[in-house]
Amino acid sequence: MYKIEKLNELAKIVAEKREKNASLEPRRMTAEEKDSLLAEFHPDYKQNEFTVLSAGVNKGEKVPTQLAELLQGRSRISAADVDLSAPDYDTDVLIIGGGGAGASAAIEADQAGVKAMIVTKLRIGDANTMMAEGGIQAADKPNDSPAVHYLDAFGGGHFAAKPELVKTLVTKAPEAIKWLNELGVEFDKEADGTMITTHGGGTSRKRMHAAKDYTGAEIMRTLRDEVLNRGIPVVDFTAAVEIILDNKGNAAGAVLMNMETKELLVAKAKTVIIATGGAGRLHYQGFPTSNHYGATADGLILGYRVGAKLLYADTLQYHPTGTGYPEQIFGALVTEKVRSLGAKLVNIDGEVFMHPLETRDVTAASIIRECTARGKGVETNLGSAVWLDTPMIEYKNGEGTIEKRIPAMMRMFGKYGIDIRKEPILVYPTLHYQNGGLEIAPDCATGVENLYAAGEVAGGIHGRNRLMGNSLLDVIVFGRNAGIHAAAKAKETDAPQGLTLEHISRFNSELAASGLDSKVQSPMLLPKYARKK
Amino acid sequence: MENKINVFLFGKKYQVPAGLTIMTAMEYAGYELVRGCGCRNGFCGACATIYRIKDKQELHACLACQTEVQEGMYVATLPFFPLVKQVYNINEIKPTEQIMMQLYPEIYCCIGCNACTKACTQELSVMQYIAHAQRGEYDKCAELSFDCVMCGVCSSRCPAGISHPQVAMLARRLNGKYIAPDCDHLEERVKEISDGMYNDLIENLMQKPVEEIKELYNNREIEK
Fold first, then answer.
1. Angle (CA) B1 B2 B8, round 5°
2. Which residue from A78, A454, B150, B179 lies 20 to 30 Å from B213 (Cα-Cα)?
3. To the nearest whole angstrom, how far is the Cα of B145 from the nearest Cα of chain A?
């Protein structure tokens, strides 16, 4: 039951129309309808929320204003703060970030026989990977093929992705599932071993593999366990604050900061992988976020300052179904799997206003339109939202489906007295994913020699919009790829000489020359949520 | 007027608005969290917390990000708990009863007090899944422990010194790798790809002009 009585009344309208709504097959939008909907209602199109960069390799391009402040912010250190000649750590492959991509990279680098090391500002596994609920795509069913997956991903990303990256993503997908399965990840399967797969928004085949609605958590904890089994060093509560270059301008390590004592440390490495994840905690345009606490775009800052180029940093994914109510979980992710299993989106009058499985950007824009221009949202103290008719799942698929397939969702709402088996839930878009990032080649190389990037921090794989289930896939495929290639490169690289942090003053001069005099320190590392009195 | 309630963070009294979670109440009080805060959505287990309500006996455990503050709540966070994790090579071990005996023999010292189950922040049947692990029933252990976030509160209450989340982690990996049925269509597809079966199809798509690929995309057949 909802604590606000009005919501219980409104939910009855949804219940009354459930039978009729369940049998509806809403029309999908035409390409033209989608284009005009996005232009009018998607947050990426709000020009006044973006700033054109005046320094660095992407000078002249626009990025979200909050990101611009950090990209053009000041380093947390100056070159004189550390002694680069006496490194605290010396390794072959330094991996910055302990999420799905970082852990996958570490396992592959270790497998290749080089010394790998993970540094992470929180704990290994404190990452968006852990929170990915819905699933992971791979075209491994007989009616599907990597070519169909390619078309879905490339089209869903508005034909903007780098084709060779999409090719890598889709052709290495089945192998990624096999690799995870052999590490012991428990995918949902039929008794004969057939993978249980569903649709995601924008997929043309049912290729979403899942482990209930803890898919990312199941993958992440397994990868973490494997990293620990292999004895790969994990330095936790230690953030990277600057990349170190050598006398050739190649990446050669990072300056680290102990998050608790603030002690600065030097890690020297032959190759460096940035796997720091996304940026939801920058709360672009004031949106709530589904991201973990450390999603503050650090890797973009680290890479940008040493000259790695950004691609599509102006495109963000607002997940259509963030929690709209209650306040304790406001903005938290309601997995797309809820819609994959048959729940429809319904407005205040109980009308199904769109096909529930359009791509995420289109669905988010459509919900925003319903709540603004059309005035058909449900108002609460937290703002406007629409219904997601979860009881429809059991109406269609039988009792017990929700507990079996989306237990995390049932638990999350159950804690606040809302039984999603019996009551619809309120949803509104939430800042979910950074579609772009550091531009990479298929081997995960950035433009800076010996510097690699993988996972959400990388850009180009998903174009301007990512499909559900292609992110978990991306962190595994490109995380592994980064590990393999960074290890191979480390093998042929001599110990770096002439370590330097000269780029800091160089970047500062560029900022000054552009008339920028920022007081903002970056990378941000953690959001500031403590109330200031 | 905001409805304020009294909570005691590590014993110190603060007035915070009702409706906050323990985590947001700490931030409202002025804490800048580094430890004890991870996903903020109930998946990572970073914010294990124990609390007692003033003048009541019962000790509760929860995740700070998922639990609403109550009047008179005495809160202590458990940002780290020293679980024992044994290392093993997943390719060399087998899902036999002996493997638990070798790696986590302390599970056989369980005295059946059920404190682990009572303390679980995810309301799992912890003692029961340990019982399955004792009997080598790794599929059942895996199923019952599936929603575990490895926060470690169960282990903090265990008189036998069992690291329940790590036992369950091993059981799930054994189940996922060895016990769950193999997937033929996956093996088949991986082989097809390595044989280069899809290269031409994809290369062909990659070279198409945008207008042509848009046409293909907008008219593609969608599985019902």
1. 140
2. A454
3. 11
Domain count, chain B: 3
Write out pLDDT tens, residues A131-156. 998 899 999 999 999 999 999 999 99
Residue with tokens 């020297």: A268
CB B97 within 8 A of CB B83: no
What number is the ipTM of this complex?
Answer: 0.97
Kindly report the pTM of this predicted structure. Answer: 0.96
| pLDDT surpassing 90 at residue A517 | no
pLDDT at A330: 92
* Residues of the domain holding B150: 97-179
Residues facing B5 on adjacent strands: B16
Residue A255: closest CA among A532, A533, A525, A527: A525
One-letter amino acid of A426: L
- Lookup: tokens for A297: 């775009």
The most distant pair of C-alpha atoms in chain B lies apart, rounded to whole Å, by 73
**CA–CA dist A303, A299 (Å, integer):** 6
| Residue A532 DSSP symbol | P
Q: Which of A305, A339, A405, A480 is catalytic?
A: A339
Provide the token pair at A336: 């797309």
Which residue does chain B place closest to A203, by CA atoms? B222
Within chain A, what is the greatest distance between any pair of CA atoms?
A: 72
Alpha carbons B18 and A115: distance in angstroms, whole number: 50
The helix, strand and coil proportions of chain B, stated in percent and rounded to the nearest 5, come to: 40, 15, 45
Q: Closest chain B residue to A331 measured between Cα atoms?
A: B41
Pair (B35, B63) in one structural domain? yes
Cβ separation B172–A218 shorter than 8 A:
yes
Residues pairing with A62 in the sheet: A52
Q: Which of B77, B107, B129 is the last residue of a domain?
A: B77
* 3-class state of residue A265 by DSSP: strand
